[in-house]
Write a structure and sequence with these properties.
alpha+beta, 4 strands, 20% strand, DUF3039, DUF3039 domain-containing protein
Amino acid sequence: MSTQTLPEVDTRPEGTDTSDDDTPKMFHYVKKNKIAESAVMGNHVVALCGEVFPVTKSPKPGSPVCPDCQKIYQGLRPGSD
């Protein structure tokens, strides 16, 4: 299975965020082939943990990863799709 981490999306109405930083709190693992489709078309993706959101940002090295996604990903067999 080919996966990549994606951001958790804040669905609160605009103006309710108290910080100036728009960086997601953590990133999720999703199927790699769904990332571009979501980024271009605005479709929602489903993370390994079950979180559903549209792709809006790419993770940077060292970004925090959803612990549930990471646990599931580590339990997958290498090369399984």
